[in-house]
Design a protein that fits this description.
- The structure holds three protein chains of three kinds.
- Chain A has helices spanning about 20-25, 75-90, 105-110, 130-140, 165, 200-205, 215-225, 235-245, 255-260, 275-290, 325-340; strands spanning about 1-5, 10, 45-50, 55, 65-70, 145, 150-155, 175, 185, 210, 230-235, 265-270, 300-305, 320.
- By secondary structure, chain A is α/β, with parallel strands linked by helices.
- Chain A folds into three domains: about 1-80, Ubiquitin-like (UB roll) (Roll), CATH 3.10.20.740; about 125-210, Alpha-Beta Plaits (2-Layer Sandwich); about 215-340, Rossmann fold (3-Layer(aba) Sandwich).
- In chain A, helix 8 crosses helix 11 (about 325-340).
- The N and C termini of chain A lie far apart (about 60 Å).
- Chain B is α/β, with parallel strands linked by helices.
- Chain B is built from 16 helices and nine strands.
- In chain B, strand 7 and strand 8 form a beta hairpin.
- The longest helix of chain B is centred in the C-terminal third of the chain and has 18 residues, at about 350-365.
- By secondary structure, chain C is α+β, with helices and mostly antiparallel strands.
- Chain C has two domains: about 5-55; about 70-145, Glutaredoxin, CATH 3.40.30.
- Chain C has seven helices and four strands.
- Chain C is elongated and about 50 Å long.
- The chains are: A alpha/beta, B alpha/beta, C alpha+beta.
- Chains in contact: A-B, A-C, B-C.
Chain lengths: ~350, ~425, ~150
């Protein structure tokens, strides 16, 4: 089949979506709800124009002779309003958010210049009843949970994209309730209890699902000059880290980045170590205590790995487990500190 | 009124709806016999196509074409199963025509359902009834049992090769389930959210099988068409959409009623002749046609014809007509529309979930008379995105009445 | 009646999930976690799926309900017949706000159309339907339930 996108001809295959063809040809279309091979068509941000009508590109299949436009006044209006509607329902506390600069909604909001909440009344404009309603509303709908060892959940940040619902291999999440009361979460607001594969945290576009961590302890230990901090890098983790921090730092040397963060020693696990990582980690503290002549109590081990279920298995040999996202957070905060934006 | 053509309401008040015998002696189930003995599914669908009958649920899609596409769908799935679903979810505010059909003549509906199911080759049919219609579900259940005893349903219907089983599926309270893909989701045990189309239910519907979903009122026309032929039906009412329609007229009129009237009737006549005109001392302001998702009609447009017309300005929707007089506080009505959609949006897509929620907030501020300049642009933006980007028609409907109120009633003028 | 006994009336086919949940909710007032887990096991679906479906529909409750539930239709037809006056009357009389879930004993819900539009405004108290309600007789109706 042949179609036209922005007045240029493209060859397409059967059953391809508009989004698919555009992605293949490097035509950028924004979106929030879709994942690599799965599109729900619910965020309505990936809209394009075809025959004067707006349609979502992610789940519309190509038909012969389609003429598609990917940027127009109507398209950007639709994207802006829908983003703004999501933004208005979002916590919007970017400066202190775990996902600051790592958030897909924030990135889109910046791109489409969404600066204020024009759907929500500002403080001075609110009558007391409305203020009460707003507070009440926010309270009744927000679910936060930090009781499981690995995944921190806060529905205040959720944009109802359903990625976690779709990706969870154990089907722990549901799209619950109806209309404005929709909450993505566990049934009966139960504490999340699963294998903690971390896929949901990986796909979450915002800070609704994040890694559970001891962030302040981590920073304290890293900055403590008496502590000897050892980073143990899981096999293939460096690519994942760079994927996270590509927009944050230009530095390409992971070793340098980690040393800057305050790590004293870096150990790389290799493919052959895959089945014996626990054994390797177990010996690290005693090894370095002898080698460097340090009190083992002053050695801190940080396992940087996607296996966030290990967060539940911390022991005297392993102090912290950081995912690639948390490593990126450390890098982000460091960069900000250098810029003088935040002071710790 | 003389010479009135009655297709759906002919037995209303004349027979006991609880007794199949009375329906039969009034000429019931003759159409089913005629279909089985003298017609083929193909010739029957041809008659329905000729009749010009179109969906009475709101969309106005040709019933014949829909049935034919399911009929022609190859039985490609493992069991060759196809389904017919009678949509009796009817939860459009101000609409109770399908309920009235069941209350007064359930067997007429059932006969239509049986014929339609056999036409498409379905062996299993669901009647999806509004969860709040408990009494009606019971009436229908009884009717199905009676029809089963008379061998109109079951194995070898009237000793023919046809088999059909009918199951009554009672909904659980969600407006969106009147939308056919949401309705299918609901029977499948899912959240009643609309599904992406294509594939259309006629190809891939209930449990992935070809499925025809038709509104109850539409189906109730089928026995008449089978008996009297498509040509006779096409002569009734308007050329664009032949036949009669149940109109539900309510509000500030003398005699609120459900009336069967040929399509093409003027709105003015519906109010004056059928509903007895305005109540004493009340002055007409506007009428809302088609339930909460319907558009507003002002005095100057009262002569418009009521018909299903793709290019028509005023979609007929479910046929509900709400007459509003000048004493009405429009802000309460706005709040009613907004709170309805804020509650009934399924929550699937962002513009509808968030948009209807913000719309409700603005409606509240409007009612308090505290609308700001920014609210006005917000209102415009929300209505625009609902119309243009929402996943299913509900989002578009949510904007209709509100937009009309702003445009035609000059709602925001006093804030300028 | 137990959840198990209710479930035995249904084949474990997906088309029966919604009817089963409705039945359980009607029987016990709501579907609690325990019952939902049994439904999930019986139909062989994840618990999240059962809850997703159950929490979507008005006629299935997933939380324990107060002993007094007042529902008022605010559909356009009822609104035209002053449904909002009735809502305000109830709010003032019982000192609650429509939609609030803070009071464990009583809840005022605004609901969608029940198809009784010919005889609005419609008010339902603990399942009993009252039609053509007027603001002046709201208190009288409630008296019977307090």
């Amino acid at each position: 089949m042949q179609i036209k996108i922005n007045n240029k001809k493209y060859k397409t295959e059967n059953e391809e979506t508009i989004f698919g063809v555009c992605a293949r040809n490097k035509i950028k279309i924004p979106g929030l709800c879709g994942m690599k091979d799965f599109h729900e068509g619910v965020c309505r941000i990936c809209v394009v124009e075809c025959g004067g009508r707006l349609m979502t590109s992610c789940n519309t299949e190509i038909r012969e002779g389609m003429e598609i436009i990917t940027e127009s006044e109507n398209i950007s209006r639709a994207r802006r309003i829908n983003l703004e509607l999501l933004w208005a329902d979002h916590a919007g506390k970017c400066a202190t958010c775990k996902k600051n600069q790592l958030c897909e909604l924030q990135k889109l909001a910046e791109e489409y210049k969404i600066e204020n909440f024009h759907f929500v009344p500002r403080k001075g404009e609110m009558t007391s009843r409305e203020e009460l309603d707003l507070v009440r509303d926010n309270w009744s709908r927000v679910v936060t949970e930090n009781e499981n060892p690995c995944v921190s959940r806060n529905s205040e940040f959720c944009v109802e994209c359903r990625r976690c619902v779709n990706i969870c291999p154990e089907k722990k999440f549901g799209f619950n309730y109806r209309a404005g009361d929709v909450v993505v979460g566990t049934p009966y607001e139960k504490v999340l209890d699963c294998g903690f594969c971390g896929e949901c945290v990986r796909v979450c576009p915002t800070a609704a699902l994040t890694d559970q961590n001891d962030f302040f302890k981590i920073i304290k230990d890293l900055d403590d000059l008496r502590k000897f901090s050892i980073a143990i890098l899981d096999w293939e983790i460096s690519e994942k880290i760079f994927d996270q921090i590509k927009n944050i730092t230009a530095e390409k040397d992971l070793k340098k980045i980690l040393f800057d963060l305050g790590f004293e020693k870096i150990i790389n696990l290799e493919e052959k170590d895959k089945d014996r990582e626990d054994e390797i980690i177990k010996n690290i503290k005693t090894d370095y205590a002898q080698k460097e002549k340090i009190n083992p109590k002053n050695i801190k081990t940080f396992f940087i790995s996607s296996k966030i279920h290990k967060k539940a298995e911390k022991n005297e040999h392993l102090d912290y487990i950081l995912s690639e996202r948390e490593a990126a957070r450390l890098v982000r905060d460091k960069e900000k500190m250098i810029e003088g934006k935040i002071k710790i | 009124m003389k010479n009135e053509i009655k297709i759906i309401t002919k037995n209303w008040g004349q027979i006991n709806p609880r007794r199949i015998e009375e329906y039969i002696s009034a000429g019931g189930y003759v159409a089913l016999k005629k279909f089985i003995e003298k017609m083929t599914p193909q010739s029957a669908v041809e008659e329905i196509k000729i009749s010009g009958l179109c969906g009475r649920g709101g969309a106005g899609f040709s019933t014949g074409v829909k049935l034919e596409s399911v009929q022609k769908e190859p039985a490609s799935s493992a069991d060759g199963e196809k389904y017919f679903i009678c949509n009796l979810d009817e939860s459009e505010p101000g609409t109770y025509k399908d309920r009235s059909i069941v209350d007064n003549d359930p067997h007429l509906l059932l006969e239509g359902i049986i014929i339609s199911s056999l036409i498409i080759g379905a062996k299993k049919t669901f009647i999806y009834i509004n969860g709040n219609y408990r009494k009606q579900a019971e009436i229908l259940g009884q009717a199905v049992e009676q029809a089963r005893e008379k061998k109109f349903i079951g194995e070898k219907i009237l000793n023919s090769k046809y088999n059909l089983d009918i199951e009554i599926f009672s909904g659980a309270g969600a407006y969106i389930c009147g939308e056919e893909t949401a309705l299918i989701n609901s029977i499948e045990g899912n959240r009643g959210e609309p599904k992406m189309r294509p594939p259309f239910p006629t190809q891939c519907g209930l449990f992935g099988r070809p499925t025809a979903v038709n509104n109850a009122e539409t189906i109730a026309n089928i026995p008449w068409i089978i008996l009297n032929g498509g040509k006779a039906y096409a002569k009734i009412g308007s050329k664009k959409s032949p036949g009669t329609k149940l109109f539900i007229i309510n509000g500030a009129v003398k005699n609120p009623c459900v009336a069967e009237v040929p399509l093409g009737v003027k709105l003015e006549d519906l109010i004056e002749k059928y509903a007895g005109g305005m109540q004493e001392g009340k002055e007409f302001w506007f009428a809302q046609v088609g339930g909460s998702s319907g558009r507003l009609v002002l005095q100057k447009d009262l002569k418009m014809k009521m018909e299903y017309d793709r290019d028509g300005k005023i979609p007929l929707g479910s046929g509900a007509i709400l007459v509003v007089d000048k004493t009405m506080d429009i802000h309460e009505l706005l709040l009613s529309w907004a709170s309805f959609f804020r509650r009934e949006s399924c929550g699937k897509c962002a513009p509808c979930r968030e948009g209807t929620f913000r719309l409700y907030e603005i409606a509240q501020r409007l009612k308090d008379g505290e609308i700001s300049e920014r609210d006005k642009t917000a209102l415009e933006d929300i209505l625009w995105t609902l119309r243009n980007t929402s996943f299913c028609p509900l989002g578009k409907f949510a904007a209709t009445a509100f937009s009309d109120a702003i445009e035609k009633l000059k709602l925001l003028q006093k804030y300028e | 009646m137990t959840t198990e006994k209710i479930l035995l009336n249904f084949d474990p086919k997906m088309k029966n999930l919604l009817p089963a949940l409705k039945k359980i909710s009607a029987c016990f007032g709501y579907v609690d976690e325990n019952a939902a887990q049994k439904v999930a096991d019986y139909f062989f679906v994840p618990l999240s799926k059962v809850f997703e479906t159950a929490s979507f529909y008005d006629l299935i409750k997933t939380k324990k309900q107060p002993s007094l539930i007042i529902q008022v239709c605010s559909g356009a037809n009822c609104a035209v017949e002053s449904a909002y006056k009735i809502i305000r009357e109830i709010e003032n009389h019982l000192h609650i706000k429509a939609g609030d879930e803070f009071n464990p004993n009583v809840k005022l819900e605004i609901i969608s159309c029940l198809g009784q539009c010919g005889s609005g405004p419609v008010m339902i108290v603990n399942g009993n339907v009252f039609t053509r309600v007027m603001a002046s007789n709201v208190v009288g109706i409630l008296q019977g339930y307090l």
